[in-house]
Amino acid sequence: MSLQIENISALERKVSLEFSKSELLPKREAKLKQLGKNMKMAGFRPGKVPLKMIEQQYGQQVDFELSFDHASNRFFEFAQAEKIELVGQPRLEPKSELDADQIVFEAFFEVFPVVAIGDVSQTEITRYDTEVNDAEIDKTIDLLRKQRVHYHPRGEEHGHGDGGADQSAQSGDQVTIDFVGSIDGVEFDGGKANDFTFVLGQGQMLPEFEAAALGLVQGAEKTFPLNFPEDYHGKEVAGKTAEFKITMKKVEWPHLPELDDEFALSLGMTEGGMDKVRNEVRQNLEREIERRKQSILKNQALDALSNATTFELPKFLVSQEEERLIEMARSDLEQRGVPNAKNAPIPPGMFAPQAEQRVKLGLILNQLVKDESLKATADQIKAEIEDQAASYEDPKEVTRWYYSDPSRLGDVESLVTENNVVSYVLSKAKVIDKKVSFEELSVIK
Length: 445
Known about the structure:
The protein is of the alpha+beta class and 445 residues long. The protein has helices at 25-36, 51-81, 134-147, 207-213, 261-266, 273-308, 315-335, 352-372, 378-389, 395-403, 406-428, 438-443, and strands spanning 6-7, 12-20, 86-94, 102-111, 124-129, 150-153, 174-183, 186-199, 221-227, 241-255, 430-435. It has three domains: 6-110, Alpha-Beta Plaits; 150-255, Chitinase A, domain 3 (Roll), CATH 3.10.50; 264-443, Trigger factor, C-terminal domain (Trigger factor, domain 2, Orthogonal Bundle), CATH 1.10.3120.10. Strand 1 and strand 2 (12-20) form a beta hairpin.
């Protein structure tokens, strides 16, 4: 099939499809008869309406559908014969009247760009290294300890003590209060609560509120002014000054568990005590560091490839990716409980840059993996799954979980393939090794 392709832009193409109306006739009568089987008309039984009357009712509809389908088939036959790599579906536009002897359609379509991977040999990539030290282990264990904090009423004797002689609310204490707020002497919605509990010093409340509660003992009352910020989420009180009265109902001091065998048991360590806890924490931190280092390298490698490689992006793929990002954003809003999240207004073009970058990187990776044979091997996939499973209580069960679902295996395959790409880029680029602390590593993008 010889058709002339017209270049509209770097990736957009157009061809004209022309055929005789007579080519449609063999299917036309059959389609009209099919429609007539369910056609209802006064004076005729179902299925007995004369063909001429069916044609009067559905003739134009049938002519258009047959013409469109025929043009579509002609286009795809042509695309297959010419080995055209189509991006999405073509757009068909009729250019002739339905009753014309020669039917003409124009097909508009996009093709994939030629992706020539750029030179990254002059790109500098920093490979960070971090060691786990005792201070990091102590810090992590302290966080685990704080997650298991419990509270006792100040002044009441308990197995862990009474919290000391000072029974007033202190930073770190958990307090339970009643409060009521008013503006110009009138209570406002959301400004009143009974038995409201929060921990002082954790920033759960506005600073003036926390300052007022500090130092109060059980049963004490205090009245104080509170200035709501201009950007406060409650628009009816934003920027206004309210008067609050609080009554301290309960003051409880925090008790952190001792670092002993009982604490180790609460973390699932049935044997080995705190030595086992420290060892597990070290291994988890080392795995976290390795994942973080790999993520940083990946970002640098992908940026290097993107910056070095230039080509036109298919509009269809960018538009499709943008729609996907919008749907993800709305789904996230819905999970957060935002009302009417499915219809949340999204500014046009909000996700366009992100969509363009994703499409660009996707095309680059596909081409590079093909050019350099970087697709993940079965052994690499197995090793990655075993590494991920090692941090769980039952690694064998995690491994079975991955291998029981092709989509999960596909996710691991994609991850390993990306790691292969990173290794390839590192072999070509200028790599600078740099030692950093755990804290520094955690903030590097």
